[in-house]
From TrEMBL:
Domain of life from the UniProt record: Bacteria
Boundaries of every Terminase large subunit-like ATPase domain copy: 83-257
Listed Gene3D superfamilies: 3.30.420.240, P-loop containing nucleotide triphosphate hydrolases (3.40.50.300)
Protein name (Swiss-Prot/TrEMBL): Phage terminase large subunit-like protein
GO molecular function, one term: endonuclease activity
UniProt organism field: Marinobacter oulmenensis
InterPro entries linked to this entry: P-loop_NTPase, TerL_ATPase, TerL_nuclease, Terminase_largesu-like
Length: 560
């Protein structure tokens, strides 16, 4: 007998909000969103209707499918959905709009490993293929490589082959590269970036993208999303664990979800939920492990998590892996420098340059390469701390390279300046410097002489206080340590700038024998120019009252 899935989902949401089920902020907000929506169903401001039959149907369908891996497959067990899974599935599939089509077009599901993601996603794919009432449905299991794309699809294929009743009921069959319903002209295939071919002609009803954090570009995501345009109720089902790349498509979608859940952005077509720990949780505590893992005690073995946690506590190399894979925490690259959670707490989207008109200002310039990112960072005294803002300049041709696709999004948001051609046009930087000189009391403009000599000469001739600041360990270590301390003490404010946050996440601290630190990056594409410029500006600001040292030479310009 089928269960009352809608009641189970409602009980789950209430238990989360009552504190009976440990859950992070984002899960609580997702549950509250559903309860709020139920309370305003069918109103003028919310023209959507809740259909319990549809909500129950998808869960009933999935629970008729068999396990295909592990102990439960050996005993021929059917899938059994946990309450947290039922909550997500009923919410996504239970709402319809005024035309009777599904409300949600995208569902972002972020959680640690071992939560039964693949089996659940395979079930969603088969439902969209056979039971969603869509003629000629095209469903794709998409990933960056063929092997990853086939994980979900192969599970679905095994489910079909092991269930003769399912084959008979829907007329579904499987071949070497597709699952299909010939009578409905519907098909379910794996799709990957490395398989080649032209993907522009897809007519997507269901797009299942597993491990979105592993996508270095947005190519596959865009192919699937744009392919849904001709469908009335397509579903883009995104599922992932946390990762490292904060400039990628996954973190972009995650950030969008957090804004929806917090009520900053309204998008009634987008469902999202994130299972992780809260910022102030101690990740070494067992209570945090359970909070992040919704399938705790089912597919997630508490003893296994404890063993891996103990290892992470004693081996620094294992810490980030445990945080991302088992607690779903986005972290920096290995051996990274800045505590990104502390950095993000310093963000204030309401902070604007207008507040600092006429105030003392220190500027850092990092012009390391004319063919890539140049950064200009402003630093102001701010009550008992500091405030900072960044400007970034990138040649158009560099921004068009496949590995730099995130630049296009930032350009659309006005977060970076694209200069024509294949090299950075420093005239844009000079123009901004003149603007800032007219608005603020510029104390110093710190620059490294590499690539900046002619710009510095021109600006000095216009009266700009240009100061050479060589990027040596002696010059960078003290302000870098100060920057870290200010961030941890929340005495440095920024405006939530995603470009600077991305660059901050890329910084790896090199420690020498004298405990000096120096900013580095692990890979060429991991830009840190904005952080370097900020360190330079802070270095000048905190040394302003000190005599000039041998490392900061302001006289060289007179020798040019």
């Amino acid at each position: 007998m089928a269960r009352d899935y809608v009641s189970i989902a409602l009980e789950y949401a209430n238990a989360v909000l009552n504190g009976d089920i440990p859950a992070c902020k984002w899960v609580r907000l997702a549950c509250q969103r559903q309860l709020n929506d139920l309370a305003r169903e069918g109103t003028d401001s919310f023209p959507y209707w809740w259909e319990p039959q549809l909500a129950n149907r998808v869960c009933q369908f999935i629970e008729l499918l068999p396990h295909v891996k592990g102990e439960w497959a050996r005993h021929r067990k059917r899938l059994e959905l946990s309450p947290w899974q039922i909550f997500r599935l009923t919410t996504v599939f239970g709402w319809i709009n005024e035309e009777g089509y599904r409300r949600f077009k995208t569902a972002y599901n972020e959680m640690p490993r071992k939560q039964g993601k693949s089996s659940e996603t395979s079930g969603v794919g088969l439902y969209l293929l056979t039971a969603d009432g869509e003629p000629g449905a095209e469903v794709y299991s998409a990933a960056t490589n063929r092997e990853q794309a086939q994980i979900t699809w192969k599970d679905a294929k095994q489910m079909v082959q092991r269930t003769p009743a399912f084959q008979a009921r829907f007329g579904v069959a499987a071949s070497s590269n597709s699952i299909f319903v010939e009578s409905a002209n519907s098909v379910f295939r794996p799709l990957s970036r490395d398989q080649g071919g032209n993907h522009d002609g897809l007519n997507v009803h269901g797009g299942l993208i597993d491990e979105l954090h592993a996508h270095k570009t947005r190519e596959i995501f865009d192919v699937i999303e744009t392919g849904t345009g001709a469908r009335k109720q397509p579903l883009l089902w995104l599922i992932t664990t946390a990762g490292f790349n904060r400039a990628g498509i996954c973190y972009e979608q995650r950030a969008y979800v957090t804004k929806i859940l917090e009520g900053v952005v309204e998008d009634e077509s987008y469902f999202g939920i994130i299972y992780t720990i809260d910022d102030d949780d101690d990740w070494t505590e067992p209570s945090s492990w359970e909070k992040a893992n919704p399938n705790w005690g089912v597919s997630v073995n508490p003893e296994d998590i404890e063993r891996k946690a103990r290892k992470a506590m004693t081996m620094a190399a294992a810490t980030n892996n445990f945080l991302t894979k088992h607690l779903n925490v986005w972290v920096n690259a290995d051996t990274a420098w800045m505590d990104l959670q502390a950095w993000e707490k310093c963000g204030d989207p309401a902070l604007t340059l207008d507040k600092f008109e006429g105030r003392k200002c220190w500027i850092g310039l990092d012009l390391a390469s004319k063919i890539d990112v140049a950064a200009l960072v402003l630093l102001f005294e701010d009550d008992d701390g500091w405030a900072t803002f960044g400007r970034y300049y990138i040649p158009e041709e560099a921004a068009e390279e496949g590995r730099n696709q995130h630049y296009a999004g930032w350009d659309r948001q006005g977060l970076i300046t694209l200069t024509p051609g294949c090299v950075t046009d420093f005239a844009f930087i000079e123009q901004d410097l003149r603007e800032f000189a007219s608005r603020f009391d510029i104390q110093d403009v710190a620059f490294d002489p590499w690539q900046a000599t002619y710009l510095a000469t021109r600006m000095q001739e216009e009266g700009m206080p240009m100061v050479e600041y060589r990027q040596t360990v002696a010059n960078m270590s003290e302000p870098m340590k100060t920057l870290e301390a200010l961030t941890l003490d929340q005495k440095l404010r920024h405006n939530g700038d995603p470009v600077l946050t991305w660059m901050m996440s890329n910084v790896v601290a090199h420690l020498d024998a004298k405990d000096n630190i120096y900013p580095r990056k692990e890979f060429p594409e991991n830009k840190i120019d904005g952080v370097v410029a900020l360190i330079m500006a802070l270095g000048r600001a905190i040394r302003q009252q000190e005599p000039e040292s041998q490392y900061v030479d302001t006289s060289f310009l007179g020798l040019l």
